[in-house]
């Protein structure tokens, strides 16, 4: 019933703060510093603009390359008009059988048209085109097989073409099926090379971002030496002193990443019209895809991480040297 | 064994600054200094310029490390503190600098609030304490001003408010009245006395002899790095 009086010493005793309150204050300080550093940057954008632009351009280059490759993969996934399937028939098959098969194949879903060339016609064509007339006259028999040329429709998926090839090969009188996919393979090889190029370029430009943000943060540290000294004198930990600079790096990365995204979107807007026209002239359904949302997120995230790392690198090198 | 009544203890502390030009280091800034301050004691540290006053204060703040000997504050041997523990030691020691070390890019309030923000106080609690500290130095109405607009005496009082806002058990001051006229000096000293009355241990480095004599507290006198008054004799610590 009596009042419970706190037994703790009064007056100058230093105040102890609970873990929870301390975490709350830590979190509040993060928020405060995050907002403060952003406001500081935005209040004087002229000073930060150069760094933002360097970060933006360094990100736009690999970003644009990535966008190009992503779009070219679209190409490789499609079977274009240049691709034809050639069926070589067995010598045992006669002209009627060949013509009948050709008509059957023409009726398939994934086939636009077929052309039957019997063995004699093939020899004739070859005689005219090759200039080996005399040599061929010595042959006792016609060595050429009858051929069915199969043309799939435009814009068919490569996967469907493969299925078609398998199906065509299963006919009894078909000896072999030849598909001209060399250009697709070359394209895939080029894409692989391009991908490697993105990595090399990306690593170099990431290094550039680290250096640029690091240098900007170094200047910021130099401008605030007094503040750092006083903060350390009244008991600021290294983490506390570091915090505003790390956030500054984060914001440099984020704003630079946003600018890079805007640049890429502008590139897309400028190019998609002409690319559509070109694709139409080639009779292709190809269209330039913009950066996907996921890719844009990756871009922003890596920009922020790079900015933060650049700041960390600079802070680690310079901040600990400033002692009161 | 550490005596819980002792706030500060210097045990045969020497400090030699290594200067690159001279072989074997420069001259000793402090040589074999022994003294103790009791909890709640008020003492002056005097001596000519260059006698080692600032060095002695810096050792207590861990702005410097002793070349030999041990500094023990509030039962803690400073030599045993890891670098990561140094900030937490500094939070227990309030310091008033001759050039007050205020930050002119923020208000008086924010200057005084800095140690609280660092220590993790909530803004509400920090605000309450900052106003209490500013009230105790008579600057309550000036919290929104920039310290650059204030007079030398007012700036010094802002520095004192910042030093005591976290209620440290030990308060150090390095020439706190160096640039002030006698009346202002008197006023500042009264402030320090008030802190001592609530249990703070106060050590003030000054060469203002007249002031010291008027105040009549214990005196520690340094001469050429040696403590010529206030020194505990060897063998006192069994």
Quick synopsis:
The complex is a heterodimer of chains A (324) and B (238). Chain A has helices at 19-43, 45-76, 95-106, 119-130, 133-137, 158-169, 182-223, 225-233, 238-281, 293-318, and strands spanning 78-79, 85-89, 113-117, 147-151, 156-157, 174-179.
Sequence-ordered SSE layout with sheet pairings:
The complex is a heterodimer of chains A (324) and B (238).
Chain A: H1 19-43, H2 45-76, E1 78-79, E2 85-89, H3 95-106, E3 113-117, H4 119-130, H5 133-137, E4 147-151, E5 156-157, H6 158-169, E6 174-179, H7 182-223, H8 225-233, H9 238-281, H10 293-318
Antiparallel strand pairs in A: 1-5, 2-4, 2-6, 3-4
Chain B: E1 6-16, E2 28-38, E3 42-46, H1 53-61, E4 68-73, E5 76-77, H2 86-90, E6 93-96, H3 108-119, H4 123-136, H5 152-164, E7 170-174, H6 182-197, E8 201-205, H7 209-215, E9 218-223, E10 226-229
Parallel strand pairs in B: 3-8, 3-9, 6-7, 7-8
Antiparallel strand pairs in B: 1-2, 1-4, 4-5, 9-10
Arithmetic mean of pLDDT of chain B: 86
Q: What's the oligomerization state?
A: heterodimer
Beta-strand residue fraction of chain B: 15-25%
CATH architecture of the largest domain in chain B: 3-Layer(aba) Sandwich
Determine the structural class of chain A based on helices, strands and strand pairing: alpha+beta
Rg of chain A, please?
Answer: 35 Å
- Rounded Rg of chain B: 18 Å
The helix/strand class of chain B is alpha/beta
Per CATH, the superfamily of the largest domain in chain B is P-loop containing nucleotide triphosphate hydrolases
Question: Total number of β-strand segments of chain B?
Answer: 10
Taken from the alpha-carbon principal axes, the silhouette of chain A is rod-shaped
* Low-confidence runs of chain B: none
What is the N-to-C succession of helices and strands of chain B?
EEEHEEHEHHHEHEHEE
